[in-house]
Amino acid sequence: MTPPRTTSLEMLAKLVAFDTTSRHSNLALIHFVRDYLAEYGIASTLVHDATKQKANLWATIGPEGDGGVVLSGHTDVVPVDGQAWSTDPWVLTPKDDGRIYGRGTCDMKAFSAIALAMVPEFQAAGLKVPVHLALSYDEEVGCIGVHGLIDQIKAIGVKPRLAIIGEPTMMRVVDAHKAIRSFYVEVTGHEAHSSNVHKGVSAVMVAADLIAKIAEIGRQLGVEGDATGRFDPPYSTCIANTIEGGTAQNILARKCRFTYEVRSLPGIDGDAIAQRFADYALGEVLPWIQRISPDANITITRRAMSPPLLPEPGSDVESFVMALAERNAAEAVSYATEAGIFQDAGIPAVVCGPGDIAQAHQPDEFIEASQIPRCEAFMRRLIGRLV
Questions:
Q1: Residue 125 — very low, low, confident or very high, per pLDDT cuts 50/70/90?
Q2: H helices within the chain, ranges in order?
Q3: Distances (CA, A) of 122 to 110, 174, 262, 384
Q4: Which fold would CATH assign to domain 179-306?
Q5: For 227-245, how does the pLDDT look when each residue is reduced to its tens digit (9 = 90+)?
Q6: Percent of all residues in the chain with a pLDDT value above 90, rounded to a whole number
Q7: Cα Rg for the chain, rounded, in angstroms?
Q8: How far apart are CA 167 and CA 338, in angstroms?
Q9: Which residues are catalytic?
Q10: Angle at alpha carbon of residue 282, lines to 280 and 286, rounded to 5°
């Protein structure tokens, strides 16, 4: 018996209801999708992480073989902690302003929901070329899960024609984005009374000096700029984002930890930018603080790395997706996605999905209701190209 059709909005409500904040398991959502696809006779392959608490999902609609199109989305969302929401973030809430509110509506459960709601149409069309559904975990904390998913694709031996990563672009076609590298920096100082600054090392003050260096590197990158003029901002960036540490007002801090990131333009060596900071931290600051206390230390640990998406202007794949999106040109964005990882694995990739990146990670995150039918029309034009 054919299950009743689920609309895109109904599917989005189901996906939003799963709290898949990156620190939590995503298995409830993944199992729901697996069971939903099974109702249509579609088998899913789950690729778990080492803890077995998270999983990617891979499923194929249509014939087996090469040349298929991957519809890719990540299942995790960013936290809502401390944000002033006027609605329940885990309840899909359409409003009269033409917006649909909820965590993940924009980034990026809408694309996945629409692809899933279209499953009956994909099946009924009699596809001659497969459509692959790819759902990943932990994109928001460093594009961690997708690597195992790509390993699974290679193990199966499938060679997709392209991957469409449905991050929010307002259904514009994106063929280039920056790389991202993020790092943990931990400073170990030497505690002393705050009146005896010469007898101790304040980890907080050392961290402040290191962050000032990050700001200096960022200013230098701003001057270097981007010759293509496609990116906003038109330069690579280097910025610290979180910091914690200290013991008490009158004690030189023993510990301070912060994170920083480098977002480098395609063609710019992001490792070289990170090395500029490491040379200063470990080559200049560390010897100085260890002269005061041999126990003082600075450690830099890579948190995550995602490569850039390199443009391939005029390529068959780019032209294919522009036709689906009814666009005459491709664009570049400064945020990172899993597209560069697919591209590095030999699977051409573009980014195109519903929603505006400006709403991502925000309180009262929303997607314009008009984006849903636009993405559905995109999917139907895809069907037309695959039958």
A1: very high
A2: 8-16, 27-38, 110-117, 119-124, 146-156, 203-224, 270-280, 286-292, 316-325, 339-344, 371-386
A3: 18, 24, 40, 10
A4: Alpha-Beta Plaits (3.30.70)
A5: 788 999 999 999 999 999 9
A6: 95
A7: 23
A8: 9
A9: 76, 139
A10: 105
d(CA 257, CA 25): 26
CB 166 within 8 A of CB 157: no
pTM score, two decimals?
Answer: 0.92
Among candidate residues 245, 246, 244, 253, the one with its CA nearest the CA of residue 192: 253
State the pLDDT confidence band at 226, using cuts at 50, 70 and 90: confident
* Share above pLDDT 70 across residues of the chain, in percent, rounded to a whole number: 100
User: What residue ranges do the domains of the chain occupy?
Assistant: 8-176+308-386, 179-306
Name the residue among 175, 147, 145, 180 with its Cα closest to residue 309.
175
Which tens digit of pLDDT belongs to each residue from 325-345?
Answer: 999 999 999 999 999 999 999
361 Rama sector, left if φ>0, alpha if ψ -120 to 50, beta otherwise? left
Spatial separation of the C-alpha atoms in residues 292 and 275, rounded to whole Å: 25
Domain 8-176+308-386 belongs to what topology?
Aminopeptidase (3.40.630)
Mean pLDDT of the chain: 96
- The whole-angstrom separation of Cα 310 and Cα 307 is 9
Question: For residue 195, what pLDDT band results from cuts at 50, 70 and 90?
Answer: very high
Q: For residue 300, give every residue at least 6 positions away whose Cβ sits within 8 Å of its Cβ, in sequence order, or none.
A: 183, 184, 185, 277, 278, 281, 282
How far apart are alpha carbons 281 and 133 in whole angstroms? 44
Same fold, 8-176+308-386 and 179-306: no
Cα(165)–Cα(353) distance, integer angstroms: 7
Report pLDDT for 65.
87
